[in-house]
Amino acid sequence: MELGIGLPTYGPTAGPEAIGRVAQEAERIGLGSVWTGERLLRPTEPMMLGVGPMPLPDFNGSVYDPLETLSYVAAKTSRIRLGTSVLDALFHPPLVLARRLSTVDQLSGGRLMAGLGQGWMEQEFAAVGVPVNRRGGGFAEHIEAMRSLWSPDPVSFAGRFYQIAEGEAGPKPVRPEGPVLLAGAGAPAAVERAARMGLGLTTVFFGWDALRGTVEMFRAAAGDAALPIVVHVNGAVTTKPVGDRMPLTGEIDQVAGELAELVSLGVDHVFWTSPDTDPDELLEALAQLQAR
């Protein structure tokens, strides 16, 4: 299992200098991956987020684009894997997104892990002119269309939502089957759909019971296919003891004792994002955790 860190693409420390420094330091200390995510819009009106109307955190108002960021990072690193968790596929036409993903994959020498989501915010769907009901079947067709574009030329696609005339479309990804694809999923139907489509899984950690259930469901739907699993932890690893904490966050010794559970579940990558934490402090803690 490899450890990773979310790049400072949002929050008080976000910026080109910080993004490049964190990526290079993550590679130097031996981390396995760096990650970006996508947020197009922070509505001024509070959002309905399970417990009731809540405003999105301020840092959602300015988020660096995930793929442009990874292209920038690809030029500053040579070995570390570059991931998105997640990029909202439905907000981008398959022909356009397939080429952008292939470009990052080529520029990085095949290091891309593309975590793709369906999106959830109605205001973002409206802003890009995509109906919310495109989720589900539209997402599956989007992935199918991109995979067809990564096959040898000439390529074409005819589906319910997307039609692509026969022609040449490149560049192609480094691997003939395309870059590593992960589905951002947590709901049972989405988890099972990802496995049936041959996609890996990237899921946010909300607790051990939820994660165990998600992984069990995913593996059962995947059958004999060895598909990667990525766990995203919203929180930080620290060099100082923490009392009240979520699992997989807190002081190094506290977290180190919990990583064996992820290994037993067959998790391939785990990474931490914490926009309120100094990224240099998080890197220092992850370096010590990596050394364990």
From TrEMBL:
Organism for this UniProt entry: Kribbella sancticallisti
Name recorded for this polypeptide: LLM class F420-dependent oxidoreductase
Luciferase-like domain ranges (all copies): 14-223
PANTHER family registered for this protein in UniProt: ALKANESULFONATE MONOOXYGENASE, ALKANESULFONATE MONOOXYGENASE-RELATED
Keywords associated with the record: Flavoprotein, FMN, Monooxygenase, Oxidoreductase
Claim: Flavoprotein is one of the keywords in the record: yes
UniProt keyword annotation of Oxidoreductase present: yes
UniProt superkingdom: Bacteria
